[in-house]
Amino acid sequence: GELLTTEQAKRYGLTEARFAALPVLEQFAWNWAILNEKAIDDLNGNKGVRILRYQDLCEQPMREARALFDFAGLEWHPQTEDFVQRSTTFNGRDRYYQVFKSTTAAMNRWRHEMTPEDQRRILAVVRETSLLPLCPELES
Questions:
Q1: How far apart, in whole angstroms, are the C-alpha atoms of residue 110 and residue 135?
Q2: What would the DSSP string read from start to end of the chain?
Q3: Of 117, 60, 26, the residue nearest 52 (C-alpha)
Q4: If I label 123, which of 55, 79, 99, 111 is the partner at 20 to 30 A Cα–Cα?
Q5: pLDDT digits over 50-108, tens only?
Q6: Spatial distance between the Cα atoms of 14 and 69, rounded to a whole number of angstroms
Q7: What percent of the chain has pLDDT over 70?
């Protein structure tokens, strides 16, 4: 209910009736889109905030971690670099709450676990929002 009172939900004509009529998968997609769009809108112009895309962190963990440390004014230590390297290239058994993972495998898991139809339906929601430019990998 609270989600539908946001400016972002109103921008897309998401009324209670329209939202309730959507399949659950699309409700989840809209929930994700509205919450992320609202966060980005609310944080726009705040110099103390850096928006980080999950994909960028997974694809370039060392570069993004260094950038985050720089942004926060923290020193980069060899111990940190070693941890980032080891924790993002793990090839063992994957567990959900585990810190050590292959970040590229984790990032792309949805492409193999979701049906093409579900992927298409979620992409259709994202295409309606202002978030699509932040997700260029979805356009292919």
A1: 14
A2: --GGGSHHHHHTT--HHHHHHS-HHHHHHHHHHHHHHHHHHHHTT-TT-----HHHHHHSHHHHHHHHHHHHTPPP-HHHHHHHHHHHB--S---TT-S--BHHHHHHHHHHHS-HHHHHHHHHHHHTSTTGGG-GGGG-
A3: 60
A4: 99
A5: 999 999 999 999 999 999 999 999 999 999 999 999 999 988 887 778 888 888 888 88
A6: 39
A7: 99
